[in-house]
Amino acid sequence: MLGRTLILRILSVRDRHIHRLLKLRNWRLCPRCPTVVFKDGNGTVNRVIRMGTRKSQLARIQTDYVAEKLKTLYPDVHLEIVAMSTIGDKILDTALSKIGEKSLFTKELENALERNEVDLVVHSLKDLPTTLPNGFTIGAVLQRESPHDAVVLHPKNSGLTLDTLPDGSVIGTSSLRRAAQLKKRFPHLEFKDIRGNLNTRLKKLDEKEDYAAIILAAAGLKRMGWEARVSQVLGPEDCMYAVGQGALAVEVRARDCDILEMVSTLHHSETVLRCIAERAFLRRLEGGCSVPVAVNTEVKDSVLSLTGAVYSLDGADSLKEAMETSVDPGNKLESAADIQHVGVTAHNVPQCAQVAAEKLGVDLANLLLSKGAMEILTTARKLNDAR
Ligand code: DPM
């Protein structure tokens, strides 16, 4: 459809005259929103799709990656990349969890989406709040890279692991989730905030003596081409990952049917279901990027399993539980069509499976809440605010 059509938005689709006009011209009305899609005379009108991105190297790499995929799928579409800075990029000296802004990396980009300056924005899913502002939706969740965290050592510590690093070694991370889990697991280590984009962090690690190692998402390191710097990948027994970690998401205007349809082909079903469960879990816990919440998910033989945990800042207090559900398309859980699940719109993934995934996240969160998760999180939040 795209690339050969022109799109016109109309105010009232109920107008009889408009319907008559549409029929007369053989134009098509979008079934989901008041948009008319009509064919150009010779079928060669190409729409320019503008992709918004942050200016960091990782954001550019991620946006280029999605642009390449779109180009392959829709060779006629013209893609333009618009780069901008966000609050998260500008405030580099404060830990993420201390900046009281939920959509640190996403707000400016969403403003541009709203003003029609861009048509889609590529994010790391883990940076997208579980409740998106009205009018936006995640139109694609791409196949997940490794969701795990990785250790990057100062070159002088080459060959060591978190276990074998000397007592008192300082590990750089400003993720409360990573610090909480690792403090408990490796009590001989100390943890210190480190901020900045990936380039800045690696520089801070290598060029100073402040940190013995830093912890970063394996996915980001891989995308940057820095896999060789990974000395250790942390499995769930050491450090469970963040909700949505390792997956890319494409955010669009919820009413922009043509763009939604276009990007929906990028969805990776298994990743969609895992991330819906994870996001539903986090949303029910009222968590953001400033609380120590971690997950682990898996899909095997149409069964989606979710392990979720909450931690006190020092990791001494924690609650961890696991649950699973069938995501077999034959599992007939009824739902209204055209529904968003924790911000995700995926018409091409079985609705019943999405409903089951969301319910799994909510159920697991409820289980943890019944065991006192809110007390742990409230205390963690207060202590972090007072830091
Ligand atoms: C969020 C967190 C961090 C980012 C918190 C967490 C890490 C902050 C830090 C919500 N977003 O993970 O517990 O280390 O100080 C971020 C990264 C990526 C996306 C970098 C990273 C790349 C990986 C991906 C920052 N957001 O975590 O090393 O695409 O998932």
Protein architecture, described:
With 387 residues, the protein is an alpha/beta fold. The chain contains eleven helices and 16 strands. Strands 5-4-6-13-7 form a five-stranded mixed β-sheet, with helices on both faces. It has a five-stranded mixed β-sheet with strand order 10-9-11-8-12, with helices on both faces. A hairpin with a 6-residue loop joins strand 15 and strand 16. The longest helix has 20 residues.
Write the layout of secondary structure elements.
Elements: E1 5-9, H1 16-25, E2 28-29, E3 35-39, E4 48-54, H2 57-73, E5 78-84, H3 87-90, H4 107-114, E6 120-124, E7 136-141, E8 149-153, E9 170-172, H5 176-185, E10 190-192, H6 198-207, E11 213-217, H7 218-223, E12 230-234, E13 248-253, H8 257-264, H9 269-284, E14 293-300, E15 303-311, E16 318-326, H10 351-370, H11 373-386
The structure holds ligand DPM.
Compact summary:
This protein is α/β, with parallel strands linked by helices and 387 residues long. Helix content is 32%, strand content 23%. Mean pLDDT is 87; it is low at 1-14 and 33-45.
- Major β-sheet strand ordering: 5-4-6-13-7
User: Total number of helical segments?
Assistant: 11
Q: Approximately how much beta-strand content do the residues carry?
A: 15-25%
Query: How many runs of DSSP E, i.e. beta strands?
Result: 16
Order of helices and strands: EHEEEHEHHEEEEHEHEHEEHHEEEHH
> What is the residue-mean pLDDT, rounded to a whole number?
87
Rg, nearest Å = 22 Å
Helix content: 25-40%
